[in-house]
Amino acid sequence: MSYFDSATKNAAKYLRNHLMLEKEFRLKSSHAHELVAACLEMNSKAAASVNAKDLLDPDFPEEMGWIAQTGDFVKTRIERLGENPKNRYLLKLLDSSDQIAEVVAQALKPPCDFCGRVNDSTKIQGQKYGDPYKWACGYCVNDHRNTTVAACHFCDRPENVWLTKDLKGPFRLCEYHVDEPN
Length: 182
Ligand SMILES: [Zn+2]
Ligand SMILES: [Zn+2]
Description:
Blueprint: H1 3-23, H2 29-39, H3 45-51, H4 72-82, H5 97-108, E1 121-123, E2 135-137, H6 138-142, E3 149-151, E4 161-163
Antiparallel strand pairs: 1-2, 3-4
Helix pairs in contact: 1-2, 1-5, 2-3, 2-4, 4-5
The protein binds zinc ion (2 copies).
One zinc ion binds at residues 152, 154-155, 173-174, 176-177.
């Protein structure tokens, strides 16, 4: 299965679970896939699998930043789908468009390179194609036994995750913050 296929499948499932837990909203599987496609700024699942396939690549972390910056595409898609009387239940999600985009963007990110956890990974700053560690989950970033990755306390989240070897000084700060007066 390609990364695109497994990631979009995971995102649709994660979105359905999220809406059930947070809002007791039962989203149909087919509609979950439509909304995931909308987060990829595509008008349908079919279009997404053709056009976004190459853009969704865990080996190129710099290129995944564009996914679902806002819920605008989600909102438009819900409005469009909701025109069909059978799909009118979706209109209840209009106010949640931004939240849906956020949840889907998180679930489309690759699993943690240390433990394999999904739906919780953050891009490791400064890592590019060919580097062994590019994604880390919150658990591994905060786990003191993991000496490979850590957070700079002065960086804003989510851009605060670095390889420990790139953090300097007694307070382990990133290159941008190491010289800042404390
Ligand atoms: Zn992890
Ligand atoms: Zn920093």
